TrEMBL record:
Residues 1-38 are annotated as: Disordered. This is Caspase family p20 domain-containing protein. Belongs to the peptidase C14A family. Residues 21-33 have a biased composition (Low complexity). GO terms for molecular function: cysteine-type endopeptidase activity. Pfam families: Peptidase_C14. Residues 58-180 form the Caspase family p20 domain. It comes from the Eukaryota. PROSITE patterns: CASPASE_HIS, CASPASE_P20. It comes from Littorina saxatilis. GO terms for biological process: apoptotic process; positive regulation of neuron apoptotic process; proteolysis.
Amino acid sequence: MDDQNEPGCGDSTDALGDQRGGASPAASWPSGSVAGGGLPSRKVSEMVVDCYKMDHKHRGKAIVINNKTFSPRLKLGVRKGTDKDATNLYDLFTKMGFDTTIEVDCAAQKIKNIMSEAADDSHWDEDCFVCAILSHGEQGAVYATDAKMDLDELITPLKKCPSLAGKPKLFFIQASNGDWKRTDGLCLNG
């Protein structure tokens, strides 16, 4: 079965610049391994390239949730620089062909509504769905402007969306821990 020529499976050149159909870098790998270096042993003939169909009429929706200021009772600082990040994501997703929106300083109920509405939308003619959440957070959770929210609670409605079945649902979480302190970094001599 040759999936490499299926629509949406990439171009005819791999990441190393080799044209498909010729000798691949895998031809030089040790027999029975993927790449030799500690990866699980698998014959090259057993490897299958899985890919999503990305040739629908529209790329899809992209939602950027940008939480900068929070309720004083949460004791979380203002997220300086987040507006620039949100603008950069908006520009990137738009250039990639997504119908992109930015939602600013969202309370928990508003975020739930955004996700519920996105799950209720029709995505039949779209390739995928993207959501970026810029906020404070901790392991497995992000903060709305008024409450902590479990990530599973946010993602579940989209996982159940029939018109997104079998399509990528991409979630980018940029969540700083409220007590994290920025440092000047470490200078390495090359």
